[in-house]
What does this fold into?
Amino acid sequence: MEKIENNILKKIKITFKIDGILQRNQRIWVSVESNRLIELCQWLKDEGFVHLSAISATDWLEEGVYEMTYHLWSYNEKILLTVKTKIDRNKSVVDSVVPIWSNNAQIHERELHELFGVKFRGNPDLSQLFLEDWEGPPPFRKDFDWREYLKKEVFDPKNKREQVYYDKTK
Amino acid sequence: MAKKSKKAMVMRKLIKSIWVFNWFNSCGFSELVPLVGSRWDMERFGMIITGTPRHADVLFIAGYQTLKSIKRAQLIYQQMAEPKVVLALGACTMTGGIYWDSYNTIKRLEDYLPVTMYIPGCPPRPEAVFEACDKIFQHVKELK
It folds into this structure.
């Protein structure tokens, strides 16, 4: 009997001409160009991947890209399918999946927007989630040095409790 | 002289038990539970935990405060009736504690709330908290 995973991979190959990877049992990885992301996600949802577990971003500093990762779960097939797409980290704009998974995706996109500065095209509400009143750069970017930022913006060298942070010998 | 002693007598009657409202982030509460429990028993000193800031005289604030939670703490402080006292417990409220280099924590609580007293420690010993509360009783006596 052919495995369900291979069946899905074959379907993706036929419809989108993309070679997915069977990572192990019940795990599939699919990499896609960012302009075809919505098309693929919509198709996958219709195939039964109705649960969006998480969206995450990986900051590849040397390559200059963010790798957006979408974890999808199918209740029928019991398969965790991971969609990956790469976007430019300096002009990080990606299509929003809120029209597909609605509130399921909303909170993840708000979080990624405040922590990585990713703009989700088509998301109506990208207000701050945890970092209210934050005005600095997105803190999860790899080139953001929060100690330097705090020394510049928050700490006071004249404050007795905080002088020690400016001591170079420690 | 006689007038003063009469006033002192009235004040002694006015002194009430201390109603405490807890605003504890992260590990703050679990470290202060012994204070409420039978081992150290804060009620014998006339202190009681209340569920609403509107009844509270003292605000215990512990654990690291974040950019988001500090606003809620300020709201709670505003709801308390005068006279009110803020006791900040632990290292986190003073310097951020082990999160001293986090972009998201409050480093100096006195910038946001009028802190009456800091109690250092991570966590502070119950005895230290009681000593602080003894000072509040003195403070209340001296208020008028």
Remarks:
- The beta strands of chain A are 21-24, 27-31, 51-60, 65-74, 79-88, 93-95, 119-121.
